Amino acid sequence: MIPSRRQFIKTGIAGSLLLSFCGWLNAAGARRLSNSEREMLGALCNAMLEGALPRDHEQRRQQVALTVDGIAVEVAGLPLAAQKEIGELFGLLVLAPARFMLAGVGKPWREASVAEVGEFLQSWRASRLNLLQTAYGALHDLTFGAWYARPETWDAIGYPGPPKGYF
Amino acid sequence: MLDPIKTGLASGWKHIDASTLPRGQTHEFDVVIVGTGAGGGVTADILSDAGLRVVLVEEGPLRSSTDFKMREADAYPELYQESASRKTADKAINILQGRCVGGSTTVNWTSSFRTPPEVFDFWQRQFGLRQLSAHSMSSWFAVMEHKLWVRPWDTPPNPNNQVLVVGGEKLAIPVGVIKRNVKGCWNLGYCGMGCPTNAKQSMLLTTIPAALNRGATLYTRLRAERLRFNGSRVSALDCMALQPDGIHPSGKRVQLRARHFVIAGGAIGSPALLLRSGVPDPFRLLGKRTFLHPVVISSALMPERVDAYAGAPQSIYSDHFLHQAPIDGPLGFKIETPPLHPVLFSTTLQGFGEAHARLMREFTQVNALLALLRDGFHPESRGGQVRLGSDGLPVLDYPLGDVIWEATRRALLAMAEIQFAAGARWVSPAHETAPGYASWAEARKGINELPLKPFVCRVVSAHVMGGCGMADGPQRGVVDHRGRHFWLANLSIHDGSLFPTSLGVNPQLSIYGLVARNASLLAAELSGRPSPLIP
Q1: What contacts 24+ positions apart, CB below 8 Å, involve B6-13?
Q2: Contact assignment for B356 to A154 by CB distance below 8 Å
Q3: Closest by alpha carbon to B427, among B407, B448, B413?
């Protein structure tokens, strides 16, 4: 589906309004991830890492939780201005109207399927709005950065890890 | 493994981790040096050797071989600017820059090239820098090559670099062996995470220990905030201590007074410090003409294991495509290889979900080539601009214009052809809509039709240059050929921000050579001795 130009403009204005609202919400700066943010990021990880995550439900849940922890660590290592931007993005995505209007995901994050979240990611990746494209880029880099930073994920890609011994 | 930094600290080096300061302080030295990378390190060595009391100010931490565990999860947040995710303002270009003692020299891939003669010729013609030429600079390059063990790497290239050798041979594209600044290198492949064997002759292991042995003072976790000046002289540098996380200010302030101030905070940090300080800039040149060697990437799946994480990361290059047109014509590009580690590769690889996972499962068979575009010579390639964000920290705008995309397409085509010639079974540019190609014919057609624009085509950079460019007068430069500021008499710039264009080569040796010259001239002036005999 190719949304009309009118739709883009509407979405863009709504997005800017929501972003400025969330900017106000997050003016206090970096903070711990809230439960709703963890749920949202968990749903994103499930879609982003499909094919890399284990199929077993319980194992998958654990791996997703560890990846979300990793994302929180990554964000805390960014300069304050970038932490604020990421905080705004997360704050936006957990608001039901934004999730519905900007991400096109009708259900709460914890109920959204991998396919539904995948569609959302693809729509932002291919968006004509730079704001959404860069948001996709940030989510992509944070998720894969958190996943492949963990030695437990290296077997699957044949990476033996750094050389050992003689140090 | 002996850690020479730990040994030096135990012997009484004056290192102050500013995050531990209980209260603010003021000190006086002969020379304040901001930054400990290629420029700051060489400057500290030469000035301290002339008997001057120097202090080095570093925003990052002091880390050394004991800390270098070859793990991306530790190395990027500890050793790089913004956890290795620094970006241009529009987020279209990711920039790798060091932030630790030794600066980018602690984490670079050791590639060492002299400034090409045609670059000096261009600077002479366009910026009146008649004192600088391949001939006049050759002794300074030789000095630094000797000091830092720069020599051709005679170990066979790793399979990732071998792709460039084989593909180049098949297509009659000449390639060369890269000189590296290493001594007793173990060929591990983890240069980008800090050398764990102390083989890389970075500033961390050479010039900075030399200066500290002579009594120099090193502050870490200290951010240079603002230069204070009266009339035409700088009187002090105000600094802000950071907390141990390197992000939040601790609230403690340090003021450093001196006879002379050398700024070597890199081509984003140095112009930003001068902008924050409000130094005279009547021609509005400060922070302008910032160059990045924008890099585009092509990944290939090879029939055999490549293991691109192992072995010297960059050992082969080709300058063939730098010499197809005049230097100010369509942008030329240099081809090299990047090392591939899981985080660096997975975040650069486009896509998500099963498509991404499928490529990651072939990680050990991936080869990647990179093309660094020589920006700053074509009249329409004017680079970017450093300005200040609302928090006073630097922001870089770098518009990616038509001349960049035209060169990008040629570069993606050239790299794909080389990879297929070397036996690749599949090639894809780092690009959001490239489907990947199974043959050169398919790739040629596909790449010719690819939309090239920001975000869709991945662009990265590891070389930031310009912003305080040299010239023969204040109408077209911020400093003169010695790096001396045109308006403030006791202020020098000694880093990559000096370059009035990019270089077309990895910049470390160009910085070492030029700064060795300029620090020697400065040392003579400040210590009242005759100038060095080398021009």
Answers
A1: B6/B64, B6/B66, B8/B209, B8/B212, B8/B213, B13/B212, B13/B213, B13/B218
A2: no
A3: B413
In a domain, B195, yes or no: no
CB contact under 8 A, A77 and B309: no
Task: Say how far apart CA B45 and CA B213 lie, in whole Å.
Answer: 10
DSSP assignment of B394-453, as one string? Answer: EEEE----HHHHHHHHHHHHHHHHHHHHTT-SEEEESBTT---BSSHHHHHHHHHH----
- Find the CB nearest B391 among A78, A81, A156: A81
- Among the partner-chain residues A48, A74, A150, the one whose CB lies closest to the CB of B353 is A48
Of A150, A159, A167, the CB nearest to B309: A159
A95 CA: distance to closest CA in chain B (Å): 24
Q: Least CB-CB distance to A158: which of B341, B347, B364? A: B364
Q: Do B389 and A81 touch (CB under 8 A)?
A: yes
In a domain, B71, yes or no: no
Q: Does B378 lie in the same domain as B435? A: yes
Query: Would you kindly state where each structural domain of chain A is located, as residue ranges?
Result: 36-152
pLDDT digits (tens, 9 = 90+) for B306-325: 999 999 999 999 999 999 99
B443 and B306 housed in the same domain: yes
3-state secondary structure B496-523: HHHCCCCCCCCCHHHHHHHHHHHHHHHH
Which chain A residues are Cβ-neighbours of B390 within 8 angstroms?
A: 81
Asked which of B461, B493, B514 is the last residue of a domain, the reply is B461
Residue of A nearest to B187 (CA): A163
Chain A residues whose C-beta sits inside 8 Å of any chain B C-beta: 47-52, 74, 76-82, 114, 118, 121, 125-126, 130, 133-134, 137-138, 140-141, 143-145, 147-150, 153-154, 156-159, 162-163, 167
Q: pLDDT of A102-143, one tens digit each?
A: 999 999 999 999 999 999 999 999 999 999 999 999 999 999
**Distance to chain A for B405, nearest Cα, Å:** 18
- Give the contacts of B274 (CB within 8 A, at least 6 positions apart): B227, B263, B281, B286, B287, B468, B478
CA A45 to each of CA A110, B366, B430: distance values in angstroms, whole numbers, following the listed order = 12, 24, 22
> Can you give the pLDDT at residue A32?
84
Cβ contact B360–A156 (<8 Å): yes
How far is the C-alpha of B94 from the C-alpha of B81, rounded, in Å? 11
Instruction: Show which of residues 462-501 on chain B sit within 8 Å of chain A, judged by CB atoms.
Output: none
User: What CATH number is given to the structural domain containing B311?
Assistant: 3.30.410
Do both B265 and B280 map to the same domain? yes
Q: How high is the ipTM of this complex?
A: 0.95
Do residues B437 and B493 share a domain?
A: no
Residues B489 and B421 both lie in one domain: no
Task: Provide the number of structural domains found in chain B.
Answer: 2
What's the whole-model pTM score?
0.95
Residue A145: list chain B partners with CB under 8 A: 343, 346-347
Contact B364 A157 (CB under 8 A): yes
Co-location of B233 and B328 in the same domain: no
Nearest-by-Cβ selection for B353 from A50, A147, A159: A50
Measured between beta carbons, the chain A residues lying within 8 angstroms of B2 are none
Whether B107 is covered by a domain: the verdict is: yes
Instruction: Enter the DSSP assignment of B153.
Output: -
Question: Do B410 and B390 share a structural domain?
Answer: yes
Name the β-bridge partners of B253. Answer: B240
| Residue numbers of the domain that contains B349 | 153-179+294-461
pLDDT of residue B323: 97
Answer yes or no: do B338 and B453 share one domain.
yes
- Whether residue A19 is predicted with pLDDT greater than 90 in this model: the reply is no
Q: DSSP letters of B277-326?
A: HT---TT--TT-SEE---EEEEEEE-SS---TTSS-S--EEB-GGGSSS-
Residue B77, domain member (yes or no): no
